[in-house]
TrEMBL record:
GO MF entries: DNA-binding transcription factor activity; sequence-specific DNA binding
Keywords of this entry: DNA-binding, Transcription, Transcription regulation
HTH lysR-type domain span: 6-63
Species this chain originates from: Thiothrix eikelboomii
Name recorded for this polypeptide: Transcriptional regulator, LysR family
InterPro entries membership: LysR-type_TF_proteobact-type, LysR_HTH_N, LysR_subst-bd, WH-like_DNA-bd_sf, WH_DNA-bd_sf
PROSITE patterns named in the record: HTH_LYSR
A Pfam family reported for this protein in Swiss-Prot or TrEMBL: HTH_1
Entry similarity comment: Belongs to the LysR transcriptional regulatory family.
Gene Ontology biological process: DNA-templated transcription
Length: 318
């Protein structure tokens, strides 16, 4: 007998037939036709020069040679399966570093991130909530240096989209809207029904220092509201703190609709008036043109985040 090993497919076919005692069930397991299984067994027997299966009208039995070989054959396939599992376990996942503003990360990105992980389990994410909102129109060189110094693959930034040296995709535009706890709409003393009612409620201010931040002064002007002091109320140095105050019912916050989407859908916040204020700045996803590493992972993430933004826009217009 030749010491050359027979074809693996033929051995798999024989093992399945021997286990099921059926050509039909073996074919179903291996997703091939019954004729293909029969051909593989015949080919294996010709290769070995010995019969392995006795065919009867409605059943099969193994010959002495087939019975003798089966335990070692099963052991061999189990060993192969263990080897494949070992190889897969040694696979090194790609890593991807994404920098975003903390508010955008917690309120928009993180609630959606599980879908990216499900679609790309081979990509390990490192999300950094970085408070420095880079404006490349002011510091062209600093942006490129930031990518290199911190090994950043992708940034999501709120700005005008002018980022020289980078590949830029606009994620979405944003509107500034008033936000409050739904209970303020039915407040026993001063229900919040129209913009003028704001004079009876505390204004919540997000004083995070970035260009393009919405302000109560501009919104009140747009709403033609007089008699409301736009400076009064509670001031916070971070939007997440101001959002928590709004969720707690401490007043009315002016912020970006995208950051409040999940809280609105969950009924924790509402938009008391339909008047929104368009902001000139928008969210953009960027990566350096000179990048040479993690390009597949970066492209996959950017494609995913753009699709999420498009779905959000479709829901908003529906």
């Amino acid at each position: 007998m030749s010491h050359q090993l027979p074809p693996l497919n033929a051995l798999r076919a024989f093992e399945a037939v021997a286990r099921h005692q059926s050509f039909t069930k073996a074919a179903e397991e291996l997703f091939v036709t019954r004729a293909a299984i029969s051909h593989q067994i015949k080919h294996l027997e010709e290769f070995l020069g010995i019969e392995l299966v006795e065919r009867h009208n409605r059943s099969i039995t193994l010959t002495r040679a087939g019975e003798a070989a089966l335990p070692k054959l099963r052991e061999g396939f189990n060993t192969l399966a263990d080897a494949v599992h070992l190889m897969r376990s040694q696979k090194t996942n790609e890593s991807l570093s994404v920098w975003v503003a903390p508010s955008f990360a917690s309120k928009w990105l993180v609630p959606r991130l599980h879908t990216f992980s499900q679609q790309h389990p081979d990509i390990d994410m490192r999300i950094s909530g970085e408070a420095k909102l880079v404006d490349a129109t002011e510091q062209h060189g600093a942006l490129d240096e930031l990518f290199r110094a911190h090994e950043i693959d992708v940034m999501i930034r709120f700005g005008q989209g002018n980022y020289p040296g980078c590949l830029v995709e606009k994620l979405f535009s944003v509107e500034a809207v008033p936000l409050c706890k739904p209970s303020l709409l039915t407040d026993s003393e001063h229900p919040l029904r129209e913009p003028a009612d704001l004079k009876f409620h505390t204004l919540l201010h997000d004083d995070t220092p970035y260009i393009g931040r919405p302000s109560w002064e501009r919104w009140l002007q747009l709403a033609n509201v007089e008699g409301v002091d736009f400076k009064r109320g509670l001031h916070f140095n971070h939007v997440s703190l101001a959002m928590e105050a709004a969720l707690d019912g401490q007043g009315v916050l002016l912020s970006m609709d995208a950051l409040a989407q999940h809280d609105i859908e969950a009924g924790r916040l509402c938009i008391p008036f339909p008047l929104s204020m368009h902001l000139e700045h928008a969210y953009h996803v960027i990566r350096p043109k000179s990048a040479t590493t993690n390009q597949r992972a970066a492209s996959a993430f950017i494609a995913w985040v753009l699709a999420e933004a498009e779905e959000q826009e479709e829901q908003r217009l529906a």
